[in-house]
Amino acid sequence: MIFIGTHFINQSQASQVIRLDPSYHHVSEIGYDGQFFYYLALDPINARWYMDVSTYRYTRILYPMLARVLALGRPDLIPVTLFLINWLAIAGGTLALAAWLKRRGLSPWFGLVYGFYPGLHVALQRDLSEALGYGLVAAAVYLYDFGPAPRHWLAAGVFSLAALTRETTAIFALGYAGALLLDGPAGGDWRARIRHGWPRAAIFLAIALGPLLVYKVFLLAWLGAGQDIGIPLSRLPFAGLWYWRYWDVPGRTEEVRTVVYPGLIAGGVAAYAVYRRIFRPEVALLLLNVIVFIVFLQADAYVEIQAASRVTMGVVVAALLCLPWLGASAARRAWFWICAALWLSLVPFWLVFPTMQYGFHLLHLLRG
Fold this sequence. Notes:
Elements lengths: L3 E2 H4 L17 E2 L5 H9 L11 H5 L3 H9 L7 H26 L7 H5 L2 H8 L4 H17 L4 H15 L4 H12 L8 H34 L15 H4 L7 H26 L5 H15 L9 H7 L1 H14 L7 H10 L3 H21 L1
Parallel strand pairs: 1-2
């Protein structure tokens, strides 16, 4: 499931373990991003010679290193541990969100909207880091609100792991640091709140994002700034989508229907909540995720629905976190049901039908 590309695996001979297995069948010229996590897990030092932009790829280091540790360094077990980590991360993230929703007085079954989100299953199928990254975000949010003391610092530690898995999750750490910054005496103005809250917010950010910043400086010194694309955004709203003339390509019209439309609906609800003076970190996070990862998302991420559905996963997480304040009653959840229907409309095609095909094949083998 790694989708190895011959272009990259034949790019160097520096590693003794990064070699193309003749029995591997999912070979193409370019491959997919999961190959870079595989190379990192196989040979963390020499994997840089088999990448497109090494500083950027090395930033998401936790997932491949965890797979390497669980495999006890054995190359033959690493494909198994890459899959196992993501499988457990999807279940763990869904469980954390379900438990959080239950503690907030809502049905935990809403968590399945996250668990069945197609972008997660792309990450599972292709050995990518989003499943672990956003699973850690869900765990960090639960610890922030309901964890044991010192819950804020425990949450910050888990946020730091999420950022080292996928740097785009750092937006959640920033949102909860902002909540600490404004968590001052009741009745005080915003200046008094900031004076009271800035020490805790600064410590929270140091724990949550400090390791990523230190590690990034190390990568820039080791691999160079020329091998890092950062998180490029489009200069104009939706320029990344218009670049591909999406109306001419059926696959990209599906991208608009299942990624862009529900994101804009959720973002509009969040913007209206801010207008109504509902100042919650969850609302701010939903609005920020929509602005950054949908409105100003770059063209490379809109290249295919598999990429866009993964990059915008934070929108789904933030929408679920907003339910206690923007969907407390059944009548106020209409926006969420519309978004969920659009997000999950591809599940039968991406999950159910392939699983049924596998089941029928298995039955055929058993009868034979």
